[in-house]
Amino acid sequence: MPVTFSIITPSFNQLHYLKRCVASIRDQAASGLVIRHLVVDGASTDGTPEWLRAEGIAHISEPDGGMYDALNKGLDHFFPEPCTLNPAHYFAWLNADEQYLPGTIEYIAAYSQRHPSVDIVCGDALIVDPAGELLTYWKSLPLRRMYLDIGTLYNLTCGLFFRASIFAAGARFDARYQAIADLVMIRQLLAKGVESACVRRYVAAYTHATSNISNQPKAKEEYRQFCAHQGPVQRTVARVMRAGERFLRAGRKQAFPLEYQLYTDAATDRTAFTAGPVPARWPA
């Protein structure tokens, strides 16, 4: 039975990055893998719809209510109800300014086949600047409701992979949120008993730029409202426990030089990078 990955990329006026993202998914092909990629474009005006048509990339291009509305459109496309899937079917989303590293999908497929009880696989990610240079690295932690209640999704979504049965059963993003619907949905899944696990491998790269949704005032306000019910003692305990677990899992340690390969402006072949030591903290 082939292993299937359904991947959604929401995009709006990000053609420059989208070309890199698409290339990083295209080169994941391997024996026994079926990769379905859908770009959900919010009616971009930068040439994205024309490029998608010219490249023959499956896409939806129409106005939407933001990233989570776009993701829900993609989920409805991939997993209409009723929907029967084979057990070896997985789902992920990769934003236009993100890339998979070489061999990621094949690696996650093999891991998931060996661990049938794991519903969400969390991989590590690199944070790079728009030119692909390393800014820092981000190692995943197990998903725990206590940690999520602080108001941040501390694992990067480009490193998350889900069993598609979760979405075939009807899970969707709450599109009333503009920045934290992923956090809200994952917390709901954990409350229902969904299991997660971490792998110690860099699986994706995230481009850090001031235009990222998480840097905008709306995001900060949604985070504040989400954790308003948490008292200061609860928040402090959760932060201390999360920091302690990160320490025990060596989440701040990394051997250098660190080598990786990304698509850059040409988006035809990956460029090899060798990075020296960088701070183990989120870029300013």
Number of separate helices: 9
Rounded mean pLDDT is 93
Globally, the shape reads: globular
| Whole-number count of domains | 1
Q: Give a short account of the largest sheet.
A: 9 strands, mixed
| Rg on CA atoms, Å | 18 Å
What's the CATH first level?
A: Alpha Beta
The CATH homologous superfamily is called Spore Coat Polysaccharide Biosynthesis Protein SpsA, Chain A
Topology (elements, then pairings):
Blueprint (H helix, E strand, L loop, with lengths): L2 E9 L3 H12 L6 E9 L6 H8 L3 E3 L5 H12 L10 E5 L4 E3 L3 H11 L5 E9 L5 E5 L6 H4 L11 E4 L1 H4 L12 H11 L4 E12 L9 H10 L5 H17 L9 E6 L6 E6 L9
Parallel strand pairs: 1-2, 1-4, 2-3, 6-9
Antiparallel strand pairs: 4-8, 5-9, 6-7, 6-8, 10-11
Name a few traits of the molecule.
284 residues, alpha/beta, Spore Coat Polysaccharide Biosynthesis Protein SpsA, Chain A, 9 helices, 11 strands, globular
Descriptive overview:
The chain has 284 residues and is an alpha/beta fold. The chain contains nine helices and eleven strands. Strand 1, helix 1 (15-26) and strand 2 form a beta-alpha-beta unit. The longest helix has 17 residues, at 232-248.
Summarize the structure.
The chain is 31% helix and 25% strand. The protein has helices spanning 15-26, 48-55, 67-78, 104-114, 145-148, 165-168, 181-191, 217-226, 232-248, and strands at 3-11, 33-41, 59-61, 89-93, 98-100, 120-128, 134-138, 160-163, 196-207, 258-263, 270-275. Strands 1, 2, 3, 4, 5, 6, 7, 8 and 9 form a nine-stranded mixed β-sheet that branches. A two-stranded antiparallel ribbon has the order 10-11.
